[in-house]
Amino acid sequence: MATVMAGIQVLPNGKDMDTNGVLPKLIEVVDESGLDYKVGPMETVVEGSMDEVMELVIKLQGEAMTEQTEEVLTNIKLHYRPDGIKMDQKQ
Q1: In whole angstroms, what is the distance from residue 14 CA to residue 19 CA?
Q2: Which residues contact 58 (CB under 8 A, 6 or more apart)?
Q3: What phi and psi, each to the nearest 5 degrees, are found at residue 7?
Q4: How far, in Å, are 12, 17, 72 from residue 66 at the CA level?
Q5: How far apart are CA 60 and CA 38, in angstroms?
Q6: Is the backbone of residue 54 left (phi > 0), alpha (psi -120 to 50) or beta?
Q7: pTM across the whole model
């Protein structure tokens, strides 16, 4: 399957919640995935097969749920080409 790029933004939401403790943990999950990625100010961009990217999204959703988290909102943007797309092609 062709490589896709995905912009992923995970937003844990909870009453009086401080996300500073959750967000570094989410970046650890991305790092542990083995996928190429770049952390940006609004989202993290990852590169991998569609299956790998969606598996990562599922793991991020689970990791974002903490005792203070009431819900998780996740925004995903996908860039797909039949012959694949890489981050270095976007610069």
Answers
A1: 9
A2: none
A3: -90, 120
A4: 9, 10, 10
A5: 16
A6: alpha
A7: 0.87
The tokens describing 27, both together, are: 């970046």
Cα 66 to Cα 76: distance, rounded to the nearest angstrom = 21
What distances in angstroms separate CA 85 from CA 54, 60, 71, 91, one per listed residue? 16, 23, 32, 12
Task: Please give the share of the chain, as a percent, with pLDDT higher than 70.
Answer: 88
Question: Is pLDDT at 71 greater than 70 in this prediction?
Answer: yes
Radius of gyration of the chain (CA): 14
Q: What is the pLDDT of residue 18?
A: 66
**Measured distance CA(64)–CA(58) in Å, rounded:** 10
Return the DSSP state at 15. T
pLDDT digits (tens, 9 = 90+) for 31-55: 999 999 999 999 999 999 999 999 9
